[in-house]
Amino acid sequence: MIYLGKGLGLCVLSDYKQMKFSNENFSVIDVTAGLTYNYNSYLHELELISKSEKTLIMFNRGLAEFKKRKILMTLKLYLMIFTG
Asked: Are 59 and 52 in contact (CB under 8 A)?
């Protein structure tokens, strides 16, 4: 199963058979494909994206505070990032 993103998954199954019929050999290939949707996976993906964006914003704020030589504020922001 391949995860396509946004809660969608793709499943492809194939089966190969050889059959003997009237002294003749026949080869058969069956291919089945399916598409699944998982809403909870989609919500989880959205949560991860928003958490990453918040972390990046706080990190950039920390850099700006560090450039202003406000070390205590920088440490506070980075502690908030690393503690969750």
From this structure: no
Q: Which run of H or of E encompasses 3?
A: strand 2-5
pLDDT of residue 34: 92
Structure tokens belonging to residue 24: 């003749």
User: What pLDDT digit, counting tens, does each position of 21-68 carry?
Assistant: 888 888 888 999 998 888 888 888 888 888 888 888 888 888 888 888
The tokens describing 46, both together, are 């959205």
Amino acid at 5: G
Q: How far is CA 6 from the centre of its chain?
A: 8
Q: Where are the alpha helices (DSSP H) in 1-84?
A: 39-67, 71-82
